[in-house]
Each structure stands twice: as structure tokens, then as C-alpha cells.
């Protein structure tokens, strides 16, 4: 997706190099915006940190940048805790020293993408299928910095009309999917929620997570509303392993959009993109 070149593409505090961001062309792609947000987040990284390494097309830019800074000697003594097999492979290839939660139960900082971000910095994650490891790692973080392009900002979780992923055990997944659907008054596409098993590319076999589970995607007719109650109810269903709502976990969200980069910290008054979003 091509987006008009920002009127102020970098905030005053954005001091990163801008390696592949076009300077003269008048368009930034959605991937450019993801990279801008991710590079901004890497400014929070300091030598000696234990880092949660997120998963997805936005987080991959942050992992690349961390690898680059390590290779240049601008960062030292970093330990990365990957949130998926894919990120593990990427970080290994970049020479980032890796560990896990068993050996590093407290993480200084994690950087990850998100599928939806609400005005309170609650998130939907897991459209890439990595929600369980992401939630385990990011629950152990002192600071979780989320990086998104502005298309991810919503007024309420579930409001994008796109998938709300739930990781379930394969055993009788259809039964679990029906229970999830009926939790929200759904069924047959007529209600507030429709549950669908995620299929692997090609549409045949079920998509299988890094933990050998399945994903049931929930599609809501509008914002869920009471996300805490929805979270508790989903987790009470036997067969549900974890859901993709990350509530009260993000400490900072960096959103890149056509008019620049907005950094919002938990509890701060809304400005920039977030403010514009909440007015719309
Ligand atoms: O399972 C995937 C993760 O939760 C991703 O962080 C999330 O889906 C956002 O991915 P992307 O940056 O590719 O939009």
C-alpha cells in the first residue's frame, strides 16, 4: 500500500539512521512505516540488556536493526529471547546471542508488532500465529514497546473486523470453536462472532503453531467491549490455551503514519495519531 509522503516523517526525537527510507520519492509504503516504527523502538535498546525479540513483518525490522548494531559494535552484551521459531532463526543468522525464559526469567525490554492497538494500549496479537510464546515472553518484560503502522490503531479491540486469534489444543477443536463462538452470542455468521479454524497456506491442512496447537480465529461484528471479561471467559474454556488479547501489557506504542511517528507511553494523554484516531 502506498501512502503519501509524511509532512514530518520523523519526530524531533527520532535520531536514527534512515538507511532505506526514500528521501526524494513522494511515497512511503506500509513496510517503510513498519521499519520507521521498528527503528525508533531500537533506540530504547542499551548494551547489556536482555531483549524479547518479537515476531512478524514489523518486529523483523527491529531484529535486523539490533543485529546490525551488534555487528557494528554499537551494541554489546545483548541476550535475545525469541518469541517464535522464525524469529529464533532470523536472530541466529544475524549472530544475536540467544537464550530462553528458563535461563532469563526477567527481560529488560521487548519489541514486537501488533494487529490492533486500542487507545489504552491494549493489543490484539497473533495473526502470525505466535501469540502464546509472545505472551509468555512479554509477560516477563519490564518494558514492552509495540511497533505498528497507523492502520493497526482501533477504537476498541475486535473493531477491525479482522481475526482475533485463539490458540487451542487440536483435540476436538471444533467443539472449542463452538464454545468460543457462543460465548459472544455468535453462530452461523448471524451473531456478533464467527469462529473459524485457521488453515495453512493453500487452505487444506490446519495451521499448526510452534507449540503444535491450532488457531481458531474469531471475527467480531464490532468492538468486543469488556475485554477483561472476554479474556477471563475465554481462558475458562477447557481446550483454550491462550488468546491474542494482550491487556495492560504494552508500556509504549510507536505508531508510524502518513503524518509522522507518534510515541505513546502507558497512562499518557493521547496525542498525534492516537488522538486523531479517537476523534474519528
Ligand atoms: O503472531 C504474530 C504477532 O503477534 C505479530 O506481532 C502480529 O501479528 C503483527 O504482525 P505484523 O507486524 O506482521 O503486522
Protein architecture, described:
The chain has 280 residues and is an alpha/beta fold. 26% of the residues lie in helices and 24% in strands. The protein has 7 helices and 15 strands. The strands form 4 sheets. The chain has a 6-stranded mixed β-sheet, with helices on both faces. α2 links the parallel β3 (50-53) and β4. The model is unreliable at 1-22 (pLDDT under 50). The structure holds ribose-5-phosphate. Ribose-5-phosphate (R5P) binds next to α4.
Order of helices and strands: EEHEHEHEEEHEEHEEHEEEEH
Query: What sort of overall outline do the alpha carbons produce when their principal axes are compared?
Result: globular
Strand-residue fraction?
Answer: 15-25%
Strand line-up across the major sheet? 4-3-5-8-14-15
Structural class computed from helices and strand pairing: alpha/beta
Q: How far apart lie the N and C ends?
A: 21 Å
Helix coverage percent: 25-40%
Bound heterogens, unique: ribose-5-phosphate
Amino acid at each position: 500500500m502506498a501512502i503519501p509522503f509524511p509532512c514530518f516523517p520523523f519526530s524531533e526525537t527520532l535520531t536514527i539512521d534512515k538507511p532505506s527510507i526514500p528521501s526524494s520519492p513522494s511515497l512511503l509504503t506500509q513496510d517503510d512505516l513498519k521499519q520507521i516504527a521498528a527503528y525508533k523502538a531500537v533506540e530504547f535498546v542499551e548494551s547489556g540488556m536482555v531483549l524479547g525479540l518479537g515476531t512478524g513483518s514489523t518486529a523483523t525490522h527491529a531484529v535486523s536493526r539490533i543485529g546490525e548494531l551488534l555487528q557494528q559494535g554499537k551494541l554489546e552484551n545483548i541476550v535475545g529471547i525469541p518469541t517464535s521459531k522464525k524469529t529464533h532463526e532470523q536472530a541466529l543468522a544475524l549472530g544475536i546471542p540467544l537464550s530462553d525464559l528458563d535461563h532469563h526469567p526477567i527481560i529488560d525490554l521487548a519489541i514486537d508488532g501488533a494487529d490492533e492497538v486500542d487507545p489504552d494500549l491494549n493489543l490484539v496479537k497473533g495473526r502470525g500465529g505466535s501469540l502464546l510464546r509472545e505472551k509468555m515472553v512479554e509477560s516477563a518484560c519490564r518494558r514492552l514497546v509495540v511497533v505498528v503502522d497507523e492502520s493497526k490503531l482501533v477504537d476498541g479491540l475486535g473493531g477491525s473486523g479482522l481475526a482475533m486469534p485463539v490458540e487451542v489444543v487440536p483435540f476436538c477443536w471444533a467443539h472449542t470453536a463452538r464454545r468460543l463462538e457462543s460465548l459472544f452470542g455468535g453462530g452461523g455468521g448471524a451473531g456478533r462472532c464467527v469462529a473459524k479454524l485457521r488453515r495453512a497456506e493453500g487452505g487444506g491442512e490446519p495451521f499448526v503453531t510452534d507449540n503444535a496447537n491450532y488457531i481458531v480465529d474469531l471475527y467480531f461484528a464490532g468492538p468486543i467491549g469488556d475485554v477483561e471479561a472476554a479474556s477471563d471467559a475465554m481462558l475458562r474454556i477447557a481446550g483454550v490455551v491462550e488468546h491474542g488479547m494482550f491487556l495492560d501489557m504494552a508500556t509504549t506504542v510507536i505508531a508510524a503514519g502518513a503524518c509522522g511517528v507518534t510515541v505513546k507511553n502507558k497512562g499518557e494523554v493521547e496525542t498525534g495519531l492516537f488522538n486523531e484516531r479517537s476523534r474519528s
